[in-house]
Amino acid sequence: MSTRTSADVVVIGGGVVGTAVTYFLACNHVDVLLVDKGAIAGGASGRCEGNVLLIDKMPGFDCHLTKLSQNLFPEISEELDYPIEWTQKGSLLVIENEAEMEVAIDFCQKLAGEGLPVRILNRHEVHDDAPLLADDVIGGMECASDGLLNPMALAQGLTHGAKKAGARIQSFSPVVDIGLDPNGRIGKVVTETGVILTRQVVNAAGIWAPEIGKQVGLEIPITPRQGQLLVAERTFPVAGRKVMEFGYMMAKFESSSYKRDVTPEMEAYGVALVFEPTQTGNFLIGSSRRFVGMDTACHIDVLRAIAKRAIRFFPVIKQIKFIRSYAGLRPYTPDHFPIISDTDIPGFYVAAGHEGDGIGLSLITGKLIAQMICREPLAISVDPLKLSRFKDKQKDIDGFGRKIRN
Amino acid sequence: MDSGEKFEIKIDGIRIAARKGQTIAESLLASGLRVFRRTKQNAPRGVYCGIGICFECRMIVNGIPNVRTCMTPAEPGCEISTQYDTAMDCTNE
Amino acid sequence: MNEFDLIIIGGGPSGITAATEAVRLGASVALVDENRHVAGNVFHHRSRGPITGPSDKIETRIGAQILKDFDQVKDRISVYLNTEVWNFIDKKTVSLYAKKNHGIEEKQITGKKLIIAEGAFERVVPFPGWTLPGVFSIGGLNAVVKGGVVPGKRFLVAGSGPLQFVVAHHLINAGAEIEAIADATSLTETVATAFRSLTSIGAQRLRWRFDYIQNIRKQKIPIYRARVITKASGINEVEKATIVRVDRSWRPIKGTEKVLPVDAIAYGFGLIPSTTLTRLCGCRHTYDAHLGYWRVEHNDQMETSIAGVFVAGDGRTIKGYAAAIEEGRVAATEAAVQLGYISRNEVEHSLEPARKKLKRFRRFGRIIDALSATRPGVLEILSDDTIVCRCEEVTLGKIASAVADGAIDVNDVKRRTRLGMGHCQGRICGQLINELIWKFTGDNRARALFTPRIPAKPVPFEALTG
Fold first, then answer.
1. Would residue B50 count as lying in a domain?
2. ipTM of the assembly?
3. pTM for this one?
4. A148 to chain B nearest CA, in Å?
């Protein structure tokens, strides 16, 4: 069952990133074909939360990039003839103690300086906002522009829209080879179902991006980082919007000397409260961060740690039933930034490595890649996102991120 | 037939008779009540499989939602309410 | 103590027999069941319901016997009732959760061997209006009626297989009025089946089945053959139902509709094995075309593809309680052999009668499967707005558009429509979804089951806090 076809651009990967790239290319009248080894949203995009968040971004480039992407969502949700369950009710970081509050106030000021609609909530305000929070939560920080959506529906909606604009979709077509022509340019993509002649390829294969990269001799430093989630039954509202804990962010980014008051398991599994209500009346509880290769099995000890952490902040959850659990693999890069980049191989682009921000950054990623391919001015400089940044760094930075002294 | 001890339970504030050994679902059905729940689309639902598989007979029992009444014994004084799944959405206000 | 020689999940006929047998042979046993009583759905309610039919008597006698045997050794068994098995930590360590009067019990128990006897549930076919209160699965109505409650005034009993005559019999005894019985199978096929089953279950038990029908005849209840339900309607509850004549593949024949003034319906198509736990545990399953469903693979000793994990009862194939009891005995005995409590030579002889019986029951089970299993024509009853996934209210039309959009298998349809994402975890809609997808794709290669997920049954978050 071998077919032969051609396309101006082949996008590899039908997650939110690949479908967004395909969508924007198709809208720009580019002849684009999307291939995926399985179903649309069959990888991380089908096993994640629906975050479009600014509240957990670092001031500066991180913020700017995410803001550009976030601004696209209201419009796209209207544009797509598909319910992606977009809601924009803001997000809340809960604060456990004075040490966190001090950092939060400073962090909030920095984000406000970037023009984000953020503010600190005092004890009274935070309990007003989420009355079922544990009594000892002393405050919170909110970002009013943050939103949520159904990631599987987003991928489907973008696919739907791309098809309408003329894109072709080939699911269940694993790429087995990418052929270069004698000049080292992209020549063809060979899948299990046929050959596609093309001059341009976008590698949006998420955790499988390194495998695709190898086919053209490129090293792409993406590692799967597992996250487990529990799905709660449809029940009465626990909180009206996204709720996470400030302490975890602080321990990770702001001040590595800060230690949360958590169990060794929670620390080891990278467990932090994530509460996400969905339009269906269910909610998701996360999260964990572990490097366990391609393993997508849920580990019961991790689920336990996640549940305990969630109950610490929302004691009411104890009585609510969970009906499902699953694990997804985030495409992690060493510096936590995605790769949105052209490469040394003419015609080969990478749009992968978004770790936990794939949903939120999907639209800007699609837009930027489309702009690169169509040779239009870019919405934002992508220098910090170039694949070559890892190569450059390798020269003077060792495996632990330490500068090598000569 | 069933000589179980009789007592009262409350459904949406109204007292009905129940017997020891009966499930809540059985007590309600015996009183002629068959609509136990309203779905998200406001459709009526009641007992379907009767053995705890289908979860259609879920109601609010003593304040706890989503209780399978076909698996839960009726107990003296227990308070049951029709469950409205339409109220189970926090993303629309 | 949290460690046992043998853990048995499911306290139905096969589970309690296995427990009794294993304890007698010297093993330490834990028995877990989610109900508040042992004996499962067949023998439960026996003490409360009226005993009238001859089959009732034999069920009661057999039930009483295995319960008596069980009671004698019960003290030596760790019995966990009202307890959900919701997770396999490894193949033979299970997570338990129970709601007690004073808080919860949450623990893990480990067995050297495991018997999964999770039983069966009803094969269901959606039809327009089947979500209305007053529509019951046959087993569901049977359970309620045996409990002494009659949840309606005029009943329609429909579907396939012997269960509909059993529930009709119980309804009559409870004083209910039955408007009609509608059997999807034609009279010719039913008679042919009856003769075929003579060799496997014997004349006496076949006679009981005729007794049921006689009881129904005595009440002058019309039995319509080759009929299925096409619609139930009513505002908040069932007010009427429509039946239609079907051809051999159960395709409805237009113009033969008949409206019946009923306020309660029992509808079902026999039983299928519950595979929730065997799948979560990781046992290998095969699709059984005869049964029209998956069943777990096992050898003659009831051992699955995982060494030391056994199955027994209707959780493997549907043959009824008599076979379930024998399977429980075989599985427990083999476990005891593997545990070293008895030598293989000793059991070979004693197991011979059980094996012989099982062979016969298996033949009978096959015949019942063939009689009950749904046929493709029945899917034509569903219209675009018929709900397929009751929990998430996913209609046939939504499935059709997902398929039109490129969905090719059950998990893909699940991601796109939420079908199977609700409270029942896909137990109801998961049955026919493959066939419904093929209806639109015309491609029956991608047969699949929903990916098994923790928990096996919904449990509160507090089950994770121990």
1. yes
2. 0.94
3. 0.91
4. 10
